[in-house]
Design a protein that fits this description.
Number of domains: 3
Largest sheet: 3 strands, mixed
Shape: globular
Number of strands: 5
Strand content: 15-25%
Distance between the termini: 44 Å
Order of helices and strands: HHHEHEEHHEEH
CATH topology of the largest domain: Zincin-like
Bound molecules: zinc ion
Helix content: 25-40%
Radius of gyration: 19 Å
CATH architecture of the largest domain: 2-Layer Sandwich
Strand order of the largest sheet: 1-3-2
Length: about 210
């Protein structure tokens, strides 16, 4: 492990956040802290279930993006590609025509990760089918898909209690990140997905639901 365990994946994040993560790692409390913040689990543990899940999202939002040959969990992805997810197109000749077979691989650590983490990486890799670069169009597509995720109206139903989105401008080269607000792809301040509106909505919901506890 490198001297600073946050150097690889969190290099672009704020120094305070990185310090907090370093402290949690040093105290052996990172997993416990993440579990407390994201207690919701998912049952998408097999490659088949992952394929169905990705296809359902794709059919809803990106029907025109061309077929997806394969979707699978990959236990070596972080070693071979140093990545949490990949999308690839393998071109081969078939009957004299060049055909691209596209596949999405998700690092198998997401099998046991909180539901929101799996959602995040699946939406990210799916968006790459249409937009290759990590640019404005790419994140506009990601936030569009996130906003269409299923919300539930009561406990026991499937779906999230509420969904909000923040968009950050992050060059991933160590320069400070800034919060993108008001203009697309950030949700409009009047939208239900605006982060502070989302927090207020959730606070009201939980104040009612847990009023008698
Ligand atoms: Zn990407």
């Amino acid at each position: 492990m490198s001297a600073d365990p946050t150097a690889k994946y969190l290099a672009a994040y704020a120094p305070e956040l990185r310090a907090q993560v370093r402290r949690l790692i040093a105290e052996g409390r990172l997993a416990e802290s993440l579990e407390r913040r994201h207690p919701e689990r998912h049952d998408i543990t097999s490659d088949g279930a992952l394929y169905d899940d990705v296809m359902a999202l794709k059919n809803r939002h990106m029907r025109s993006a061309g077929p997806l040959a394969k979707v699978l969990y990959d236990s070596r992805l972080h070693l071979t590609h140093q990545a949490l997810g990949t999308h690839t197109a393998v071109s081969r000749l078939q009957g004299g025509r060049l055909k691209a077979k596209r596949e999405i691989r998700i690092a198998s650590l997401f099998r046991e990760a909180p539901a929101a983490f799996l959602r995040m990486i699946v939406v990210h890799e799916l968006a790459h089918l249409k937009e290759r670069a990590h640019d404005r169009a790419f994140y506009a597509l990601c936030t569009h898909m996130l906003q269409k995720l299923q919300c539930r109206s009561k406990v026991g139903d499937e779906g999230f209690d509420a969904i909000g989105a923040v968009v950050v401008d992050c060059k991933n080269d160590g320069t400070p990140i800034t919060l993108a607000t008001a203009s697309p792809p950030a949700p409009a301040p009047s939208s239900d997905f605006d982060y502070s509106r989302f927090v207020r909505r959730l606070a009201q919901l939980y104040a009612t639901r847990f009023a008698r506890i």
